[in-house]
């Protein structure tokens, strides 16, 4: 027991190279200088996938992964949002041609039905010249 009182296991001196340097200020690890920020800002461009997400799909697909399912659903939702109901319905039909989980199949079928309902409500557009 004398070892613990005189030093022993809990009498460990810890030194760090950070502590030995006096007068330096430690920067946060996520620090970015103004110059670095400006360089990144000049070259950065947002990734825009408006109205074109459906073009990335390879359909029909059997047992899509969670990520693939999200892309499929977002594609249909995007077309629906932009009132491109016929295109959304066609994509939904193609998706339904693959092997899908019950819950995902029901979601896609619901969108297909919504699109068909909207298409029936739209007045037909006649070509005038």
Top keywords for this entry?
129 residues; mainly alpha; single chain; 6 helices
Chart the SSEs and their pairings.
Layout: H1 2-6, H2 17-20, H3 34-43, H4 66-81, H5 85-96, H6 102-121
Strand count, sense and closure of the main sheet? none
Kindly report the average pLDDT value. Answer: 78
Q: Looking at the structure, what is the overall shape?
A: elongated
Overall radius of gyration: 30 Å
Q: Could you list the spans in which at least 5 consecutive residues all have pLDDT below 50?
A: none
Please, how many helices?
A: 6
- Helical content class: 40-55%
Structural class: mainly alpha
Give, in order, the helices and strands.
HHHHHH
Q: Note the gap between the termini.
A: 103 Å
Strand content: under 5%
Oligomer: single chain
Number of strands: 0
Task: State the gist of this model.
The protein is an all-alpha fold.
């Amino acid at each position: 027991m004398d070892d613990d009182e005189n030093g022993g296991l809990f009498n460990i001196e810890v030194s760090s190279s950070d502590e030995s340097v006096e007068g330096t200020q430690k920067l946060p690890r996520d620090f970015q200088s103004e110059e670095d920020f400006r360089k990144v800002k000049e070259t950065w461009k947002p990734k825009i996938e408006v109205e074109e997400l459906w073009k990335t799909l390879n359909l029909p697909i059997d047992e899509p992964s969670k990520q693939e399912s999200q892309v499929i659903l977002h594609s249909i939702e995007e077309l629906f949002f932009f009132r491109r109901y016929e295109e959304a319905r066609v994509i939904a039909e193609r998706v339904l041609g693959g092997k899908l989980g019950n819950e995902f199949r029901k979601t896609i079928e619901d969108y297909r039905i919504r699109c068909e309902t909207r298409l029936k409500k739209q007045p037909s557009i006649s070509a005038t010249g």
